[in-house]
Design a protein that fits this description.
This is rRNA-processing protein. The protein has about 120 residues and is an all-alpha fold. The protein has three helices and no strands. The chain has a domain of about 60 residues.
Length: about 120
């Protein structure tokens, strides 16, 4: 019976006292833990912002490279078409197998016009 009385006294003494929220101050270790978590959140946010900025720069560089590649490929395709047309003109022959002279003259005039401008 005395053991039950001792246990009852312990539970009563361990029961939390009523504290008002305004005067409650958490223990120092709890404050340190909260501060550490806050610092970690801040570091994480800062690292994320830095990473996102870096990703935007990488994405912009990729877009610039893609656009430059597209321009180069269009220029190459245009030059290839132009050479094919010129080649087709120069390959034309008359019924007797002679080259069509007007096409030869046109190609020479195009070269002169391109050289003067």
């Amino acid at each position: 019976m005395s053991c039950a009385l001792v246990l009852a006294c312990r539970f009563v003494s361990m029961a939390p006292q009523s504290r008002s929220r305004s005067t409650y101050v958490p223990p120092a270790w709890k404050q340190q833990r909260q501060k550490k978590k806050q610092v970690e959140r801040w570091k994480t946010a800062l690292a994320r912002k830095s990473w996102e900025e870096q990703q935007r720069e990488v994405e912009a560089a990729r877009e610039e490279e893609r656009r430059a590649h597209e321009e180069r490929s269009q220029a190459v395709a245009a030059a290839q078409r132009r050479r094919a047309e010129t080649s087709a003109k120069l390959k034309k022959r008359t019924r007797r197998g002679q080259p069509v002279l007007s096409n030869q003259v046109d190609v020479i005039l195009q070269k002169l016009g391109a050289g003067s401008s």
